[in-house]
Amino acid sequence: MKQVRAFTRKIAVFLAATGIGCAAAAQSAHAERLAIIGAVLIDGTGRAPVPESVVYVADGKIERIGRVGDAIPAGTRRIEARGKFIIPGIVDAHTHVDSLGVAPMTNEQKKIAREYYPRAFLFNGVTSVVNMSAHVPAEVLALRDRANTDPKALVPRIYTGASHFTADQGWGGRHNGGIKSPDDINNRMDDYAARGFDLVKIIDEDGLGDETVFPKIAPEYLNAVMRAAAGKDLPVFIHATDADEYREAIAAGPRAIAHGLFTPLTADSDIVADLKQKNIFVVPTIVLFESFFVFLDNPALLNDPLLNQSVPDFIMAAARNPETIKTMRGRMDEILKMDAAAWARDSLPALLANTRILFEQGVKVAIGTDSGGAVMHAFQGYNTPREIEIMADCCMTPMQAIVAATRTGAEVIDGQAIFGTLEPGKSADLLLLNGDPLADIHNIRDFDWMMLRGHMIERSTLSYSSYVSERQDGTPALP
What single DSSP character describes residue 47? Predict the structure, then answer.
């Protein structure tokens, strides 16, 4: 295929520049043993960086970690990486990879967007996602299975739910998640388990502002979903945003709460103590609420080259169009019965302060974006490193933010034995950064090469323009 040949040529250029001949490069599509030599390794565990590391990769996994000067076994392909910084691939613990957002699209554009979105995550360094619920469940399951069975597929590792559970006519009910009866819960859970979904999402919210906008899930239904999920050994994530909803969620005992808390919090709150005692993760999705207003307040942010390289051009056109923005804002304001942008502007400081308190008090906080939702600028993939930057600015050191984006993200879905840190036996998902992220967290965006399941990928091949070229050439969009 044209794409495989082009990929091999690009690897050859990279390896030639690092001292490896074309004969070795021609075999680059196979998960052979290789050594990445000389980079500073930040392994995702929180331990001190390893300077002049040698990362050995075999069969798609980290084989071992050595140091420059060690004898490298014969037959090992060498990739020179002095001056680079290696971190694990990023985990986004709250996504909707098949959601099209709110930009108006033709049917063909919808198809293109769904095909491209997995690459948008990879382009931005995201190698694993927790897909809270699916709009087209069969498509997401197919993507997940492809990533699990084809090491070369340009798809991040996916853990996914089906449709969420919410009150009839409740928040998210328009996506077929409303519970009709007790039997509906058990029937749906049987179906989800039989089809192999990985998690369950419950929405427990009556609206973001002070006014009650939606009916909330009844306590007996919430508990029934929890029991049904436990019977199928499926972890539960609960959508909650205020103190009452948080207390209801904590009492139910989910794996994680899927948004941050807006009600002002103190360190001695029962909410903090109970989250810790029950070992419940929090995925604040601060960038989602920032997206309510930040691009409206500063439209020049839409000119970021990395944004434009990883978002379809027709979505970017809509994101810049004043009339489209006005229409989409009007719809959201009508649904939420308030000026959503003004509310988010006013409420974000409390969300940031609460997240800092939770983290400082020992609650496990992971990185997530709720990308693809009902917010005009909730960009797939691009918003994930922004969430890391926010965390490093408000709540964590750069090292802690990297751990939250890697190891903790894997722990949220109980995948830490497989991915999340760069340790022997784990998946070789990593980024070769050009600058030190501990000196400047923004360097998590600056890389030219990444590794996905043991395969080197040039970042530029993951851009939207590269995807468009492949479609025009007639090569498969997802190899």
Answer: P
H-helix or E-strand containing 129? strand 126-131
| Phi, psi for residue 30 in degrees, rounded to 5 | -105, 150
Query: What is the structure's pLDDT at 335?
Result: 86
Nearest Cα neighbor of 400 from 437, 433, 451, 446 is: 437
Q: Where are the domains of the chain?
A: 2-88+422-473, 90-412
By the 8 A CB rule, do 310 and 321 touch?
A: no
Instruction: Tokens for 113, please give them.
Output: 């967007």
Answer whether residue 20 shows pLDDT above 70: no
Q: ∠ CA 369-375-378 to the nearest 5 degrees?
A: 40
Domain covering 2-88+422-473 assigned CATH 2.30.40.10 in the classification:
yes
- Where b means 16+ CB within 10 Å and e means fewer, 33-61 reads ebbbbbbbbbbbbbeebbeebbbbbbebb
Identify the pLDDT of residue 175.
Answer: 59
Given 3.30.70.260, 3.60.21.10, 2.60.120.380, 3.20.20.140, which CATH number is that of 90-412? 3.20.20.140
Contact 200, 161 (CB under 8 A): yes
d(CA 391, CA 126): 16
Asked if residue 375 lies in contact with residue 292, where contact means CB atoms within 8 angstroms, the answer is yes
What would the pLDDT profile of 407-416 be if each residue is shown by its tens digit?
999 999 999 9
User: pTM of the prediction?
Assistant: 0.91
Alpha helices in 106-202 (DSSP H): 107-123, 137-149, 182-195
